[in-house]
Automatic annotation (TrEMBL), chain A:
Gene3D superfamilies reported in the protein's UniProt record: Periplasmic binding protein-like II
InterPro entries to which the protein is assigned, alphabetical: Ferric-bd (IPR026045)
Protein name: Iron ABC transporter substrate-binding protein
CDD domains: PBP2_Fbp
Keyword DNA repair tagged: no
A Pfam family hit: SBP_bac_6
Organism lineage: Bacteria, Pseudomonadati, Pseudomonadota, Alphaproteobacteria, Rhodospirillales
Family: Belongs to the bacterial solute-binding protein 1 family.
GO CC list: outer membrane-bounded periplasmic space
Entry binding sites for Fe cation: H46, E94, Y230, Y231
UniProt GO MF annotations: metal ion binding
Length: 344, 551
């Protein structure tokens, strides 16, 4: 018996040698090295935007940045489950609810005063556990051949009306749409949100991703879609092939549909590189980081360090966004309501 | 570690005469005695110990393979009946069930008809260029399903819903039916058809009443494979805007991570898989299909198509145009649009990481399948059959179920393993264990057991004997197994997305993130590389199926 196992052990050893080198190589290529000489960023923002931030930061400071890709809520929930053992140093999201989730679990380290000072108070939570780094506006992107301006919905809530059945699109599984629902929940309460979601289930065609939804609007498969503004601006600046028949309708008037969603960044309390992590958040909200928003092709609003937004964007002051408290946006309640409505 | 027939005494006899022989021998013998057993005592330790070690190892692998299923059961118990009921018995689950059922019902019949028609044309008719058409009928397997949908969504942006999903599913998966059906057609004994014809049946009746019934096993097997893939597929249906359990689980995963809702959907999905397995067993039946009588069957005649040649040519030509032409033309177009700019160093990095993961995963999976493969050939029995089922069932589970189980298990109880290469490799091992097992078992069965016996009579220990004879002879089969596993890993998307360590970039995940941003030109290089890597393996598979049929 021992003999047999000895041989098996030898065979296993051969396999380990065979695969060992590849595993080492993989480990070197991935998390293993990053933990020691740099920071790990759980990134739910657009990969190209955060990569640009990370590259600029590394250029200025020499600190390496490793990105893990994922959705807002996927990574947020992941950090909560990882708890104190999380390998993440910084968490960057597209929307606020995932930041609120991690904050509620007490996993953020408070940001330093000089980091917070770069962002105006209305673009960050009062407790200072994380900060806004960029913002995006809810819009109704519509097909100009199918809808005249006077036929557009006055409020986001109108889209639950039976007259809109089958005419508009959304991406309900995405963090963006869920952030909008979160704002609605905060502004109008649970009953109104639940009944609106029921209307969404009846009326909206579900797509996977805002870009895909806009593409469907452009192709005329639906008349409009509830998405964020930059999908349109970005496509227009690029080839325009997914948006040539599309225009944006801003709801304004403090309507829930005028919700301005804050992208957040925070430093994890469990981070072993807090100084570097704080420096990265400071860099993102600093002049250079915000200028990437202004000059790059992310087309999200710059909100900090007094940097103006990209000139192609509707001025932030004209959006008439409703006042929402980002730190109490509750995505768990949103997904529960959406699951109950059959959207998830 | 030898076959029971090696020793004239049956195991039952041995146990009756020498109860507890294993324990005594294990404890008492020194290594020297093991190396040079005398002829008289050789039989006493060889047989019981060998299988015992292999059984222990196979049992360990079986237990690990039961992890995902056990996890789903455990989470159901943990969640509590009320929550389970609220999450399972809701309209959304009903919708997904209807969608999934409709997809299976809409996809399988056309796929079966297409596969049988192509198999008949390429194997039993005088269709011009039959060999070429046969290759072209297998080649779509080299195009990952989500690349098929990417091509189709480019060509026909309006494609969506059940009709779109069905079209792409049939085109992507019919080769799984074509390969076994064509192999079976090659080895049918034409004498049966002759008898039927001599009794007055026309050609169509002969086909329907004699040929088709003999295709039952390959059709059932192929349909099961297609059906399971339809349940597990993610990328294809996301692009085509069609919700199945798998896409809904990923939605839940992205919205609430590994919450109870995701896990309950996974539970229902597992039930769907089990239902499919059960349906296949019921339909397969247990008739005898082997020919009776001595001698070899003669080669079947090829029926002359005559005037029907041109219309008959349309079938394989149209199939090839839709299943290969569309993806290749689309890829070519995006490559041209992307130009040199899309071939950055990131592509090279993704190739490297994919190759390493595929290599490591294939080696480990094949090694893990080895004890079971050897046991099922050399020492079959009831326990072995149960363990074999444990090995096989996990391959029927969608990657999303396996990944969700491993995410939760590692994050809750084995955090050091969480998001590591080890966990991804474990997921690959679970998903592709059956592939490794099938190849290994076939080749071990072809290695004569007498060589093991001879080696042991020359003083080798059982393990040495197996290693120096059977394993060497089985090496080509093991290589084929590894190739099949590696191919699966190179194209795996869902489990990789959910489990991979920070910074992992495989061809599949990179392709996926580019298409998610609608950057189809940027995605093209990764798709091309996946196709190129898969092509040789696809042809290997085709060649093997021909060899298995003896032609």
């Amino acid at each position: 018996m021992t003999m047999v196992f000895k041989h098996l052990a030898r065979a296993a050893a051969v396999t380990v040698v065979l695969t060992g080198s590849s595993l080492t190589a993989l480990a070197q290529g991935t998390a293993g090295s990053a933990a020691d000489d740099g920071i790990v960023v759980y990134n739910a923002q657009h990969a190209s935007l955060t990569q640009a931030w990370a590259d600029g930061f590394t250029r200025d400071t020499g600190i390496k940045v490793t990105l893990r890709k994922g959705g807002d809520m996927e990574l947020g929930n992941q950090i909560v489950q990882e708890g104190a053992a999380s390998p993440a140093d910084v968490f960057v999201t597209e929307n606020s609810p995932a930041m609120a989730l991690v904050d509620k679990a007490g996993l953020f380290a408070p940001l330093a005063a000089d980091v917070l000072a770069q962002t105006p108070e209305n673009f960050r939570p009062a407790n200072g556990h994380w900060t806004g780094v960029a913002a995006r506006s809810t819009v109704f992107a519509y097909n100009t051949a199918k809808l005249k301006p006077e036929q557009l919905p006055k409020s986001l809530l109108d889209l639950a009306d039976p007259s809109w059945k089958g005419r508009w699109a959304a991406s309900p599984a995405g963090a963006d749409f869920q952030a909008i629902v979160g704002a609605l929940l905060q502004l109008k309460g649970e009953a109104a949100t639940a009944s609106w979601l029921k209307g969404v289930k009846d009326n909206a065609k579900p797509y996977k991703g805002n870009g895909v939804a806009m593409k469907a609007v452009n192709a005329g498969e639906v008349e409009g879609a509830v998405i964020y503004h930059y999908y349109y601006v970005g496509d227009q600046a690029n080839t325009g092939e997914n948006s040539k028949n599309v225009a944006l309708h801003y709801f304004r008037n403090n309507d829930p549909g005028a919700f301005l969603s804050l992208s957040g960044a925070g430093v994890l309390a469990s981070s072993k590189h807090k100084a570097e992590a704080q420096a990265f958040v400071k860099w993102m909200t600093g002049t250079k980081g915000q200028e990437i928003l202004r000059d790059g092709n992310a087309y999200e609003y710059a909100i900090a360090s007094g940097v103006a937004s990209n000139a192609k964007l509707e001025p932030i002051a004209k959006l008439q966004a409703p006042k929402v408290t980002p730190e109490t946006l509750n995505n768990k309640a949103v997904t529960d309501l959406m699951t109950a409505a059959g959207l998830l | 570690m030898t076959h029971p027939t090696l020793d004239p005494r049956t195991p039952a006899f041995r146990d009756a005469v020498h109860p507890g022989i294993n324990a005594r021998e294990d404890g008492a013998r020194g290594e020297g005695a093991w190396r040079s057993p005398t002829a008289g005592e050789g039989w006493r330790w060889r047989r019981p110990n060998g299988p015992a070690a292999a059984i222990a190892l196979a049992a360990l692998v079986s237990l690990i393979a039961l992890l995902p299923l056990g996890f789903v059961a455990w989470i159901a118990v943990q969640t509590g009946w009320d929550t389970v009921a609220a999450l399972v018995f809701r309209p959304r689950v009903g919708e997904l069930l209807v969608n999934t059922l409709l997809l299976e019902l809409a996809t399988l019949p056309p796929a079966i008809i297409l596969a049988v028609a192509l198999a008949w044309l390429t194997e039993r008719s005088d269709l011009p260029g039959a060999r070429l058409w046969a290759w072209l009928a297998v080649a779509p397997l080299a195009v990952p399903a989500f690349v098929h949908s990417y091509a189709w969504i480019t060509v026909a942006p309006g494609l969506h819903g059940l009709s779109g999903a069905t079209l792409v599913s049939v085109l992507a998966y019919f080769p799984f039916l074509y390969v076994p059906v064509a192999a079976q057609m090659r080895r049918l004994d034409p004498a049966m058809e002759d008898v039927a014809a001599s009794l007055g049946l026309g050609p169509w009746e002969v086909f329907l009443r004699v040929v088709l019934p003999q295709l039952r096993l390959p059709i059932c097997g192929g349909a099961l494979l297609v059906g399971l893939h339809l349940l597990a597929e993610y990328g294809l249906y996301v692009m085509i805007q069609f919700d199945t359990f798998t896409t809904a689980i990923v939605d839940q995963f992205q919205s609430a991570y590994n919450g109870p809702a995701a896990n309950m959907l996974a539970g229902v999905l597992v039930l769907c898989c089990l239902a499919l397995l059960g349906a296949e067993t019921a339909v397969r039946g247990n008739e005898r299909y082997a020919r009776v009588g001595s001698g070899a069957a003669r080669l079947p005649d090829r029926r002359r198509l005559g005037n029907a040649t041109l219309p008959a040519l349309l079938v394989p030509a149209l199939t090839a145009a839709l299943s290969l032409g569309v993806p290749l033309v689309t890829l070519g177009r995006w490559l041209l649009i992307g130009g040199a700019a899309v071939w950055g160093p990131a592509v090279l990095g993704a190739i490297g990481q994919t190759a390493l993961l595929a290599l490591a995963g294939a080696a480990l999976t094949t090694l893990a399948a080895l004890p079971m493969a050897w046991l099922s050939v050399r020492a079959p029995g009831r326990l072995q059959r149960i363990m074999e089922a444990c090995h096989y069932h996990v391959g029927a589970l969608p990657g999303v179920v396996v990944a969700l189980a491993l995410v939760t298990i590692t994050v809750r109880v084995a955090l050091p393993l969480y998001q590591t290469v080890a966990t991804v490799l474990l997921a690959y091992g679970l998903l592709f264990l059956p592939r490794a097992l099938v190849g290994l078992r076939g080749s071990i069965a072809q290695a004569p057991v007498e060589l093991e016996r001879a080696a042991m009579s020359l003083g080798r220990t059982p393990f040495q004997a197996v290693r120096q004879t059977t394993l060497r002879l089985a090496a080509p089969g093991a290589a084929a197994s590894m190739a099949m596993v590696a191919l699966g890993i190179a194209n795996e998307l869902t489990a990789t997305l959910m489990l991979a360590p920070n910074g992992t970039r495989t061809l599949a995940t990179e392709f996926w993130s580019f298409t998610a941003e609608l950057d189809y030109a940027g995605a093209a290089p990764y798709a091309v590389l996946m196709v190129l890597a898969s092509l040789p393996l696809t042809f290997l598979l085709h060649a093997q199926s021909k060899r298995a049929a003896g032609r």
